[in-house]
Design brief:
The structure holds 2 protein chains of 2 kinds. By secondary structure, chain A is mainly beta. Chain A is 10% helix and 50% strand. In chain A, strand 14 and strand 15 form a beta hairpin. A 5-stranded mixed beta sheet of chain B has the order 6-12-11-8-9. Helices cover 5% and strands 38% of the residues of chain B. The chains are: A mainly beta, B mainly beta. At the A-B interface, strand 1 of A face helix 1, strand 1 and strand 9 of B.
Amino acid sequence: MINTGIKSLHLLLLVACLPMQVVIAAEYNAHGILDFRVNHINSSGQGYLTGGQGKLGLGDGVHFSAAQIGADLSVSWDNGLSAHGVFNAYPEATGDGEKSALGLTEIYLKYRSIPNSAGYRLQTKVGLFYPEISLENNAYAWASKDTLDSSTLNTWIGEEIRVVGTEIKVTRLGRINNDKYDLSFSATAFINNDPAGALLAWHGWAISNRQTLWNEQRTFPWFPAREDGKNLAGQAHKSDPFLELDNRVGYHTRGEWKLRGKGSISAGYYDNRAIPYKVVDGQYGWRTRFYHLEARWRLSDNLSLTAQYLSGDTLMQSKEKEDVVNNDYASGFVALHYNWQALVANKKHKSTLRVEDFSVTDNDKTEGDDNNEDGQALTFNHSYRLSKQWFLSAEFTVIDSHRPARSYSVQPVDLVETQWQFATRYFL
Amino acid sequence: MLKHSLFFRFFVIRFSLLRFGLPIFSALIFTFASTSVQACTKEDPTCVQVQVNNVKNQPLANMVVYLEPLANQVVPQQNKTVEISQHSKSFIPYISVSQKSDKVNFVNKDDITHHIYSADSENKFSFKIRSGETDSSTHFDHAAEIAMGCNIHDWMSGYLLVVDTPYFAKTDEQGVASFTLTELGKYRVVVWHPQMRAENNRMIVEKELLSAEITTFTLQKAMDDIPVQTSDDFDFISDY
């Protein structure tokens, strides 16, 4: 009898509490991007996405594609807490496109405090997310804002760098301290990024808008060291960049100085702390470390600059702890953005010119696996805002690269590739 | 913090549509000068004027001027409503003035949510305000200088000056603020602007205000830059 009484009391309390939870106002947001393109590519063969030696996502020829269908979903509460889920789909392009893929790219919880009276704000993020590196991919679903394809630097971030972890960011707001600048510092502890570096070694730097989905395996070109009996015979045919192989926690730190109304300068360091001789089901740990620098500056009302540089190394060893892949790599770009409002009296036209330089230096003696690479790329984009949400873009890219590994598949070591893209992008 | 929303709101299911703000016309900021007392003419015997000039002796517009009676003068009773809007991801006007206990309405004229806050320890508040909503949940019942921000859009910056007098105004393009007083006498005349480089961002004079008196203030230092409340950014940024 008493027991039943307690039970019903519990039930009553539960019922009383339920509406309390419901009335905490939650705001649901669904954003996304649809990106339809026509590409005309001049290359020596297949693009890197299908395991070719090309530096572009698609290979030689004309392609029609829905280059990205992305959904950026979030729920935010009034107490500063929010939950985010980002999904991306990449339907198969005509021509030699890779098979259609659909999946999750980010999912995390975020909490942002109200700044205290000293102007300090705390933000934490827990889940699967991108470490804060890219200055290009800040549109919905990590789409690139000013160009159709990301730079080599950020194409790599989208392909191999993603973490499952906790980020803590402290921002000191200048507005509250009578300073013209904001300062922020963040630190992330993470797991699940041990094989990062493999794809960069084996297909080099590349240019596309493709992001690796959670749990997705990515292909790379064939090279002689993968043959039976050779050093890399044990490597799986595809690389799975988001694995935890050694239960060691990696970290990423970043600092930013932001001058109000002008721009920002930031720098960071990433180290996945992977054990380089650890191998599970053909997936090796790659000790990958790099630093990165970014600058964004408004040069005038219409002209602004974005620049990024990343440099680091990666190491993968045999079970006997001998170096199998030991590479240094670097990539950087400078982009200028011009708003044509002075000439066409509106903000609907915007042009972007991006120049980049990239390299991989192979320091190991593994035969049949030359990872050396050196190249430059130039991209010009012009976008027109047709209506609030529709954008029309034309983009030209030329990549000049020297890559000895192309000789493994009887392709020119020195190659100049060009790509014309015409796209219509819809942001929801 | 959750004052208004905790109990009075239900789930707001909304697909945030577009982030397409109208361009900000800086002129708009200035035309919103919230004059509490009607401008008066020199012929009016109870009209007093305050002239504010910059360090180069040129008139300064949009400076807040208020008069605090020091001799128990009779002041008019009024109940005004002050509106602070969020428009094109900025606070408009940049500076608002209210008499203590006046109702202050925050009106979100953007098609996105803002998260308005004040971090000041004595006047702390924060609330989210969704597109098209008006929020009047925050009460300002003592004189204060409140710096406001948006926790989603860090470049947004606005001020609310709460005064304990009905005599407040912003200077016009000629640098003049006019007041029709109910009673002349001794007043504390204060000029305030958050970017005025002076102690407590103020200049103060206590004096006997006579009929048709013009009090002139000339700043000792150049004004600091007024923050630009804009981000040139694209409307489809994935951030908060």
